[in-house]
């Protein structure tokens, strides 16, 4: 295992050349190769259990809530009354756990391609994977793009919890314009999508391209972010694309006692970007 040496896991990725993030490993819990990717789970010394896909950290016990809560609640609180929600990816179950906090949601469908990810999360990250236990959840095993092609005018909110767009990886097609057209077609009037949109410190070119073609499809396209120490540069972003109103101000609130990270103030603040980011991804500051 190239990423595990002398008791330390080190994350090397083609999307963040010249840097790495390392965690001291106490025990390798699982290692396997699915038809789609390499799956690793280990117990770290300071971050609890860790899920890794193709050498890239997806979740840790210590900080996963900063990602899961912001991903789910930025999207759901930006819709006035979400009833049907689709999650593409997210096989660890964390997004499902957060969606389940919204009692107005009647149906939650998750489309995940890799059964090994689900099984590994259920065994080693049970506090996240308990999202699968909600009775409103329906699991569809398969490719997210193919699933979306069959869906028209069906969902209020779609959340795309994908891995990074590595060449040849399972998420590569999820960062292309045709996929976003399918996302829009699957939305009900006033619906919105929220997708994983990379790191503002090292992926401005990817973010700018996502925003460029999404603006041709949606009424409002906005970038927000959260802090999370186990992700590259300690930050990860979300692209919110709406066929209705802006997502910068929540339309609904959620009981803050249910969360560790998300609240109404941080919803608003997450869209406030450094000047260099705003100039790079929006090109025209006056339009945002």
Supply the key terms.
Rossmann fold, Spermidine Synthase, Chain: A, domain 2, 25% helix, 2 domains, globular, 288 residues, alpha/beta, 13 strands
Strand order across the biggest sheet?
9-8-7-10-11-13-12
**How many structural domains in the coordinates?**
2
- Note the main sheet: 7 strands, mixed
Give the overall shape: globular
CATH H-tier superfamily of the largest domain: Vaccinia Virus protein VP39
SSE string: EEEEEEHEHEHHEHEHEHEEHH
The name of the CATH topology of the largest domain is: Rossmann fold
| Rg calc | 18 Å
Global structural class: alpha/beta
Average pLDDT, all residues: 93
CATH class of the largest domain: Alpha Beta
Write a structural description.
The protein has helices at residues 64-76, 94-99, 115-124, 126-129, 144-149, 177-185, 204-214, 264-269, 275-282; strands at residues 4-5, 8-11, 21-33, 38-44, 49-53, 56-60, 84-89, 107-112, 137-141, 155-161, 187-196, 220-227, 235-242. With 288 residues, the chain is an alpha/beta fold. The radius of gyration is 18 Å and the shape is globular. Belongs to the spermidine/spermine synthase family. Residues 6-243 form the PABS domain. GO terms for molecular function: spermidine synthase activity.
């Amino acid at each position: 295992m190239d990423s595990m040496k002398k008791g330390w896991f080190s994350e090397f990725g083609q999307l963040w050349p010249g840097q790495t993030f390392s965690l001291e490993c106490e025990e390798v819990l699982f290692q396997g190769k699915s038809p789609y990717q390499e799956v690793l789970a280990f117990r770290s010394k300071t971050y609890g259990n860790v899920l890794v896909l193709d050498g890239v950290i997806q979740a840790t016990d210590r900080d996963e809530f900063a990602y899961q809560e912001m991903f789910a609640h930025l999207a759901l609180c930006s819709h006035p009354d979400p009833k049907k929600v689709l999650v593409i990816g997210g096989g660890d179950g964390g997004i499902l756990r957060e969606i389940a906090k919204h009692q107005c949601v009647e149906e939650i469908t998750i489309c995940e391609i890799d059964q090994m990810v689900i099984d590994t999360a259920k065994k080693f990250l049970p506090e996240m994977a308990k999202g699968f236990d909600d009775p409103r959840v329906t699991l569809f095993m398969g490719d997210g793009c193919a699933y979306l092609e069959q869906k028209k005018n069906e969902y209020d909110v779609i959340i795309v919890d994908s891995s990074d767009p590595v060449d040849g990886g399972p998420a590569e097609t999820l960062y292309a314009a045709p996929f976003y057209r399918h996302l829009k077609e699957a939305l009900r009037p006033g619906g919105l999508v929220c997708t994983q949109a990379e790191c503002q410190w090292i992926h401005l070119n990817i973010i700018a391209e996502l925003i460029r073609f999404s603006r041709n499809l949606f009424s409002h396209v906005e970038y927000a972010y959260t802090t999370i120490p186990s992700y590259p540069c300690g930050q990860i972003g979300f692209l919110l694309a709406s066929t209705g109103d802006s997502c910068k101000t929540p339309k609904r609130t959620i009981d803050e006692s249910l969360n560790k990270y998300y609240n109404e103030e941080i919803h608003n603040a997450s869209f406030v970007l450094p000047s260099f980011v705003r100039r790079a991804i929006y090109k025209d500051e006056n339009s945002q």
